[in-house]
Predict the structure.
Amino acid sequence: MRISDLKISISGIRGIVGESLTPQLLIKFSEAFSTYIGGGDIAVSSDTRPSREMVKYAVFSGILSCGACPIDLGILPIPSLQIYVHEKNIAGGISITASHNPIEWNALKLIKKGGRFLNDYEAEELLDLYYQGKFRRIQKPEQVKQEKNPFFFHEQKVLQLTDTKLIKKTGPKVVIDACAGAAAPYVKEFLEKLGAEVKCINCEITGKFPRNPEPVAENLSALCKAVKKYGADIGFAQDADADRLAVVDEKGIPIGSEYTLALAVQYYLTEKEKTPVVVNLSTSRVISDICAKEGVKLFQTKVGEINVSRKMKQLGAGIGGEGNGGIIVSHVHPCRDSFSGMALILEYLCRSGKTVSELRTSMPDYYMVKGKIRASYRDRKRILTRLNARFKKGRTDRTDGLRVDYPEFLFHVRPSNTEPVIRIIVESRDKEKTKEIYDKIREEI
Amino acid sequence: MTDKLRISVSGVRGVVPDALDVESASKFASAFSSYMEEGTIAICRDFRFSSQMLQMAAVSSIIASGLDCADFGRIPVSFLQFYLQKKSFSGGIAVSAGHNPLPWNAVILLNENGCYLEASEGAEVFNINEAESFQKAAWNNLGQVKKHKFPLELYLENLSSLIDLKQIRKSKFKVVADPCHGVVSPFLKAYAGHFNLNLIPINNIPKKPFPHPPEPNRENASQVEAVVKATGADFGFLLNSDGSRISLVNEKGIGLSEEFTVPLCLLSLQGKIKKAVTTSVTSTWTDWAAETSGIRLLRTKVGQSAVSHLMEVEEAEAGGEGSGSFALLPFSPGYDALLSLTLILDLMAKKENSLSEIISLFPKLFHKKLKIPVSAEKTYRMMDRLEAIFSSEKPDFSDGIKVKRQGVWFSIRPSSTEFILRIMIEGISREIIESVEDEILERIET
């Protein structure tokens, strides 16, 4: 079967520049979005990929064509764009970023009024418009507007919720690795305003990613070295669009993305407020343990930021996120936000007087394996049904693929929206056990 | 008819968004960049609502093809043509619709010398467009966009070298200008300062809607006429919205036909050039002026592409059209209203005559220009019928139908930029052109 590198789905449009992602397609997609939004202002920002200008001009023309007015925010993290759309009360936003995908990719992520992503139904409506190609083109387009200080609202909101006096007094030494991404122009000043002493790596926009942008342990070696070299208290790494966060401890060891979220949740519940917690079904049990200890309820949703943030809103949850390092603090904005994450974790560090490794070891140890297996679109359903039958003694949840919980381990398998693969996570308290279950599932598939 | 795109070497024109939209603009820019293959495309636009939008679509497509883009912002097409000839760009794109009314816009393609594309080059671009076989650059090979400022000083210097600057400055002409809220507006003050004009501008706020149809001619001249009378100016002029065409108003406040522009420019160039090109439908005044000035005049099809092409082939220095357009090499291959204005200022300064005195030497001729809307499907059948009707008079078929009679000639041809038939009648008396007009209209209606 031939698989296209152009992905038009409910997550937006994504493709490889110079191959599938052409100006004509980008224009059409932006026209569909502008028609869908039905006029008003649409804020547009990008990460630092070299294709950002090409994409941006196409997006601007498409937005103008169907009556909305683009506001040019330049390079900006995706959470900052969401907050801007919310605070300015404008009609929508488009983020030009392929997130953790390699640099030859680019994509459009679509944001609605209120600064949230489109949910599945809304996205399907938009796709309908796109495929029908019936756009509401107008005779008198608007002119593009410029925004000089697009990070302002985001920064203010995080600073307001943070005890910067405490952090200033302690003066933690921080190394930040912005992956030469969307956070690069802002993050140093932000951390300094929080009260930290800051060393930067990968904070210059070079048009290349100095490392694989996914903030997982194997991509953080430069940060680990820098933490040791500077004798820093903590290292932070962001991805190219700055929604996800990774943490490296004072010894230069990554604590793992599941524990990044765990630190934030733990601190939020003990120091900020006791609220329900929402995470997705692919998130570690360490969060369940924390919630049980703190006596709050935990809810698990389908994977996808919009699903978590909608549930949070419904429950009035103050904190939540995804085990991939996506921390959501509702009072800043119901979106994954590495900046809120850094503020909470720095405050935790200063308040507790402990080191990052001490904070990490105060939590139970879990071992998680994540992977993906190729499986044709047709086979995937059948595979899940077979797995369900094979592991029927566990507690199963079919909200999003298949999640099975046994007392000693859990796994979550789900078909990807954009590729013919099945994603797998397996977790247990024991490294060997995790590996054993993971292999078993692979075999089944 | 508003949903049809006019695709020709003079650009891709149409009503926005029914015919010309961001997708078509982006495709044409992709096709043009693919044809050019490498280098830098210079780009400019006018003040129409849709121009920024169409330009952005073009910019994205240029850099996606791996060519760089030099963005000159909002300048007249003629400025871009001037600069293309001076510097080494691969080509140019102008988003500007000149004389077309407001819901229209156009994407104009220019070669490395600032000329309109030749017919065969244009066909190549349109073929690439139809096949959508566009050149695509990889992510690390995309073009860059760079903002450029148009070097106005260089332009004015080059203009000055064509004429007797001292003489013009000494004359301190008082002039009423109507740039039609167009793209020349922001440059008028510097121009007037350079030539020491006492300039009285009207309709001089770019971005505002056109105050009248943007074609410079007698019908649209009433505001300038009134201001010339009220201020006692030496003369007045009107420009189209992109500054390629000009028509004049004399010191008595009487609007003049745009057909005077080319012959006045030729009179001004007496002794400086040898050959000039005009079209088959330009007034006989042009022959008279060429003869008076010792210039050989050649005629070709209507349109800047055909005129530039013949200028190149015949090594003619000047070219112009009865619409009030004039170009002069090596200054620039583009029709430029400020060039025409400068030549006319020079003529008046040299002769020390008023505009009406200069005009009074012209042979007495009357003109009538008509525009008859016709849908694209009907155009050619109608032209066939008219050809048959007038065939006994042995018409000239080089562009539409041109019929010569005693004391009068007329031409009927389909416009390449709009869905209309253009009719031009020139005769020695009002009566004679009116009777020809009646005859043509009757023939078309039946």
Notes: Residues 395 and 403 of chain B are 5 Å apart (CA to CA). The interface with chain A takes residues 16-17, 21-23, 25-27, 30, 49-50, 52-54, 56-57, 59-61, 63-64, 103, 134, 136-145 of chain B (CB under 8 Å). DSSP finds 15 helices and 19 strands in chain B. The radius of gyration of chain B is 21 Å.
